[in-house]
Structures are given as structure tokens and as C-alpha cells.
């Protein structure tokens, strides 16, 4: 029970048995995770378990089998937690080596020490999960909230992409329950919510001050104790014990007979009085859950260490300006430096921002040289993107690759997406799901935002927030508060609007996925597929996306048998299956009706086929493009007595 208490705010969702009877010891061999208490008399029975961690409460030891890898906490959290636990459990040990120790302080009682231990782990989880609300996607608000967590963005912004411990925490069922329970924007808040929202700066400032950390732990322990004991101890009425000679006294008078009508009248009077009185237990007050400081502010200390210098960012901006101004010679001089700078995250983000500005200025139609430069820089950006896209570079480039284009011939246009397909991120279902949920959240938020002329500020909690600055969670909180006051017709109207929003985004993403999954030359990719097989397509040109059908899809949410891809070797069929699986998952999680889902399954093959027909014309015209002429050096006029040694 102590271990379960230390997991707060997470909830253990697997098998939990406080004391296992002797007749059920074979349960310890089950392959599912469990927390089971076993009597010390049966310790010999647990020695043969190979994949079970054993904690001996009597001896104070923990035995971890060699085949089990327990990832450590990320630093500096592990060392800080170890130090605080030492101060709580043995405060005198911290002062033992001091030449002039301070006056000894009174040790905490066992009850308060129990709360201090819980406070240490509560503080640990607050540090570990701080900023999590900024990575929540509000997919639906009505009739019930549907919330998804953007794991890749959280890991990337925290700088813990390669941390095994946090990765396992985020992938566990306990964290999924945490998101569904605590992601709700309008609910009763508790100590953990206040800690994540308002104590982040204090915990960061106290990192190098052990005594301040201990003081904070004791403050949290005091609040935990008050939560567990909300009312002061009430003196109980004690019945006096009769004396030894009490039996010698005169017999007491018999208890009088009670009048049934009088008793019922007294009960009715008391019941009526209690109905009008306030409840003895204070009702939970629901409110907007505060999100806390943004993730960028949390990581402001470490982000500057890996950022590019201002000079490199200026080079990127200058090169893009030269490209769009037609100064190709100047852009060509800067291109090697730009490609080197794009190894850094800040330069990649700068590139996406500059390209977005040119799209907004209606400068997306490029000539052949400009198109080649832009595509080359995009490919360099995507080259270092992992399948998770934890820094959001691929997400920022996705609308750009469908915007920049060049005219091949009258009526035939080639977009940039046909030249940036050979990257693993496009074949990752998790990337598409996160992008879909993010865009749905944007449209759901816009659905409920009122026009600026009608309402400039909205009250969120105790703060007045401008309408345009309200987050999706703030909008959802207000809508959940107003939901019980709406008429049934209005409620049904809002539900239908939200479902239409999700449905339209599913169609939009079916088109987007077909853009980036269908290769420019589908016939050549089909031949490669037949010759090389499913496993050898990674090395084939323009065919990485077809291999993703057997690789990434097999690891997706609802993967089917792998024999399906082996039966039909056409690229279109593989892409249709990939998109259908994506549509099935996101629409089921978003509460889309079965009729809309069936309609999507009918539309997806038509979308893919139409795009294939478009690509055939693009591929045919792209083969007719003349090679870009290199600039020729003019032969200089020779002065009298000069002669040309080498021809340029």
C-alpha cells in the first residue's frame, strides 16, 4: 500500500494483492505485471522467479534479477531525490561531518515522516511531468472530453528523448489513465495541480539549497496531513465504568415506553432541518485547471547551450532572401554554410519560419532553380528528423511541402512533397496521429471562439484573458461549465459541429498522406517491389514509403496480418490500407459515427487513385525538363603581349 501511495498522482492499474494466500502462490508465475505481498514464510517459493523484483520489507533489501533492466531516473532528479530522502529518513546523517554542526532539530514524528516521504515523491513527479498540460490535444469537448497527449513534443521540449525511464512512464497504462483523468480542463483541483502550476519556479530555485528543499517538503507534508485529517480530533464521550459495589444499589427504574408517533415526529423535524442545512462534507468545487508556465520557460536554461549563433541564423535568412529575389549566384555561395547550419535545431526552425512568411506573401510558385534550392534545404532539415519528430520540424514543413510548387507545363504543377518523400517520419503512424489531433484541436478551438468585436476578454479563473490568447483547454473548460445550462437542441448542434470538424480533417489528412506516401513514379516502385520484396525497399529510390506499409504499420495500433501486403504488391493498395488504418484509429478515438467512418473508407481509394493519375502527368513532364545550364566563363580580351594558358 505504501508503494501505491508513492505513485500518486499515477494509479497502478494492474494486479494488486496485499497478502497472497498460500494456496495461490502459483499466481506469482503469471506473465502480467503485478504487485503482490507474500508472507516471509514463503520466501523460498519466490527464489525461482526470474523476472520478478523482490523487496524484502523485513531485511530492507531489493533484489533485481539480471534479466530485468530498471532504467534510472534522469539526472539531476535522481541525485536530488536521493539526497532529500536521506534528509527525511536520517536528518542527523547530513550534519555528522560538519565541524560546527547547527543546533539539532527535533525529528519528525512517524506520522509526519510518512507524509514527508509522500511529499518527496509528489515533488519528484511534479518535476518530472511539469508542463505536461501544454502537450495535451483537446480532440473533442462534447458530449464528453476526448484528450490525447503529444508524447514526442513533451520529450523533445524537455530534452529527454533518449531517456528510458521517462519513455517507459509515458508508455505505461498508469500514465494513460493519468491523462484521461487529469487532462480534463474543468474539474476539481488538488495539491499536485497546484504544485505543477505554481511551484515550478520555486523548485528550480531550490535545487542547490538542500535546507530550502527540506522546508518545501515539510510544507507539502503538512498539507498532505491536513488533507487526510481535515477536522481536529473530537473528544469522544466516555461511558464511566461501573464501580465494584454498583450491584448492591437499588435496582434502576425501567426504561419508559416510547411513543411511536412522537419519535417519528422528532425524526421528521430533524430531517427537514438537515435538508436546508449545508452539507457536512464540503462539495468539490470544479474550476479551470491551471496549465502552469510554458515548456519553453522551463527549459530556457539549457536551450541556449545547443542553439545556433545569431550569425548562422542570419546566413539562413540571407540565403532564403537571395533565393526568392532571384539572386541565385549569391544563394549558391551561401548554400554550403546553410546546409551546415541546418544541423542545429534553431536553424531548422528559422528556415521553416522564413518559408512560412513567403507562403503568406503568395510567393509559393517558384522557377526551377528556386524550387531546387528550396527542396534541397527542406531535405536537409528532414534528414535529421527522427520518426517521432520530437522538435516539430516535419510538422512545420508539412504545410510547406504542399504549398511550394513549380510549373512544368500548362496545366501540370509539381509540388515540393514529391521531392521530400524519402524520410522515415512520413511512414510513422504516430507522427500523423499527433498532427491530426493538433489540427483538430485548432479547428475545435476556432469553432468556439467568438468574434473579436463581440467579446474582447474572457474571465478564466481569476484572470481576464484576451479572446485570441485563450488556449484550447481554456475554451474547453468554459464550454464544459456551460454544457449543463444548454438546451438539448443546442447540445446536439454542438456535437454535430464537432463531429463534422473531425470528419473534414480526416478527409484532409487522407489527401495529405497520399501526397507523401505515393511515390512520383509508382510503376517503377511497383517493379522494385516485385523484384526486391518487402524487406529490400529501404534502399530503393523513392520507395521508402512503400516499405513503411510492412514496417511501421505492423507496429501501429490495430495492425493486421502481415500476409496482406505480400498478396498484393501494388503501391496504391498498400497506401490505401495504411490510410484506412490511420482513419480507423483516429476516428474511433474521436467518437466519429460508423456512417461517417464507412464513408471515409469509400473515399480513400478514390483519393489515392486521383492522386496517382495526377502524378503520372507530373512524372512525365519532369522527365522533359532540360538540365540547368551552368554559367560559362567569358573569354577575356587579351592585352598586347598576353596569351591564354588554360581555357576556362
From TrEMBL:
Biological process (GO), any one: regulation of Rab protein signal transduction
Keywords for the protein's UniProt record, in alphabetical order: Guanine-nucleotide releasing factor
Keyword Translocase included in the entry's annotation: no
A GO term, aspect molecular function: guanyl-nucleotide exchange factor activity
Superkingdom of origin: Eukaryota
Residue span(s) of domain UDENN: 1-189
Matching SMART domains: dDENN (SM00801)
Protein name (database record): SET binding factor 1
Organism for this UniProt entry: Mustela putorius furo
Amino acid at each position: 500500500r505504501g508503494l501505491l501511495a508513492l505513485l500518486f498522482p499515477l494509479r497502478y492499474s494492474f494486479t494488486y494483492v496485499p497478502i497472497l494466500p498460500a494456496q495461490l502462490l502459483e499466481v506469482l508465475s503469471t506473465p502480467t505485471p503485478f504487485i503482490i505481498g507474500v508472507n516471509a514464510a514463503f520466501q523460498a517459493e519466490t527464489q525461482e522467479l526470474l523476472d520478478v523484483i523482490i523487496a524484502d520489507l523485513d531485511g530492507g533489501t531489493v533484489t533485481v534479477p539480471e534479466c530485468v533492466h530498471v532504467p534510472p531516473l534522469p539526472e539531476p532528479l535522481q541525485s536530488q531525490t536521493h539526497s532529500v530522502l536521506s534528509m527525511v529518513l536520517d536528518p542527523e546523517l547530513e550534519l555528522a561531518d560538519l565541524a560546527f554542526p547547527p543546533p539539532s532539530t527535533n525529528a519528525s514524528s512517524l506520522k509526519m515522516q510518512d507524509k514527508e516521504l509522500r511529499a518527496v515523491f509528489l515533488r519528484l513527479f511534479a518535476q518530472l511531468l511539469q508542463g505536461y498540460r501544454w502537450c495535451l490535444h483537446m480532440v473533442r469537448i462534447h458530449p464528453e472530453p476526448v484528450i490525447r497527449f503529444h508524447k514526442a513534443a513533451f520529450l523533445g521540449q524537455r530534452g529527454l528523448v533518449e531517456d528510458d525511464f521517462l519513455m517507459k512512464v509515458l508508455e505505461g497504462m498508469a500514465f494513460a489513465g493519468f491523462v484521461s483523468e487529469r487532462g480534463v480542463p474543468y474539474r476539481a483541483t488538488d495539491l499536485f495541480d497546484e504544485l505543477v502550476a505554481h511551484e515550478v519556479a520555486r523548485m528550480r530555485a531550490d535545487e542547490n539549497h538542500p535546507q530550502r528543499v527540506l522546508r518545501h517538503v515539510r510544507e507539502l507534508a503538512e498539507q498532505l496531513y491536513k488533507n487526510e485529517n481535515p477536522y481536529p480530533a473530537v473528544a469522544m464521550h466516555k461511558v464511566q465504568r461501573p464501580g465494584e459495589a454498583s450491584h448492591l444499589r437499588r435496582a434502576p427504574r425501567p426504561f419508559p415506553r416510547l411513543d411511536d408517533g412522537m419519535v417519528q415526529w422528532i425524526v421528521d423535524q430533524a430531517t427537514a432541518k438537515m435538508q436546508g442545512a449545508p452539507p457536512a462534507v464540503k462539495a468539490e468545487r470544479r474550476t479551470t485547471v491551471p496549465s502552469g508556465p510554458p515548456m519553453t520557460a522551463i527549459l530556457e536554461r539549457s536551450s541556449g547551450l545547443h542553439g545556433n549563433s545569431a550569425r548562422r541564423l542570419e546566413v539562413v535568412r540571407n540565403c532564403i532572401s537571395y533565393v526568392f529575389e532571384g539572386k541565385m549566384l549569391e544563394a549558391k555561395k551561401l548554400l554550403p554554410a546553410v546546409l551546415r547550419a541546418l544541423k542545429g535545431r534553431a536553424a531548422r526552425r528559422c528556415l521553416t519560419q522564413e518559408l512560412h512568411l513567403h507562403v503568406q506573401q503568395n510567393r509559393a510558385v517558384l522557377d526551377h532553380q528556386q524550387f531546387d534550392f528550396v527542396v534541397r534545404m527542406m531535405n536537409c532539415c528532414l534528414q535529421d528528423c527522427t520518426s517521432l519528430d520530437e522538435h516539430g520540424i516535419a510538422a512545420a514543413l508539412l504545410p510547406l511541402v504542399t504549398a511550394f510548387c513549380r510549373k512544368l507545363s500548362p496545366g501540370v504543377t509539381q509540388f515540393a512533397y514529391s521531392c521530400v518523400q524519402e524520410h522515415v517520419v512520413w511512414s510513422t503512424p504516430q507522427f500523423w496521429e499527433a498532427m491530426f489531433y493538433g489540427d483538430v484541436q485548432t479547428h475545435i478551438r476556432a469553432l468556439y471562439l467568438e468574434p473579436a468585436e463581440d467579446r474582447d476578454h474572457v474571465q478564466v479563473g481569476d484572470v481576464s484573458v484576451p479572446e485570441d490568447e485563450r488556449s484550447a483547454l481554456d475554451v474547453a473548460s468554459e464550454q464544459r461549465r456551460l454544457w449543463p445550462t444548454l438546451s438539448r437542441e443546442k447540445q446536439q448542434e454542438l456535437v454535430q459541429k464537432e463531429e463534422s470538424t473531425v470528419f473534414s480533417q480526416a478527409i484532409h489528412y487522407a489527401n495529405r498522406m497520399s501526397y507523401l506516401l505515393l511515390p512520383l513514379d509508382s510503376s517503377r516502385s511497383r517493379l522494385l517491389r516485385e523484384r526486391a520484396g518487402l524487406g529490400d525497399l529501404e534502399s530503393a529510390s523513392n520507395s521508402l514509403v512503400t516499405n513503411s506499409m510492412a514496417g511501421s504499420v505492423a507496429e501501429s495500433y490495430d495492425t493486421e496480418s502481415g500476409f496482406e501486403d505480400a498478396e498484393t504488391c501494388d503501391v496504391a493498395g498498400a497506401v490505401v490500407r495504411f490510410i484506412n488504418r490511420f482513419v480507423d484509429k483516429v476516428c474511433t478515438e474521436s467518437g466519429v459515427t460508423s456512417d461517417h467512418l464507412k464513408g471515409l473508407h469509400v473515399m480513400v481509394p478514390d483519393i489515392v487513385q486521383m492522386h496517382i493519375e495526377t502524378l503520372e502527368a507530373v512524372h512525365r513532364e519532369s522527365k522533359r525538363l532540360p538540365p540547368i545550364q551552368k554559367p560559362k566563363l567569358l573569354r577575356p580580351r587579351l592585352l598586347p603581349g598576353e596569351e591564354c594558358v588554360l581555357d576556362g
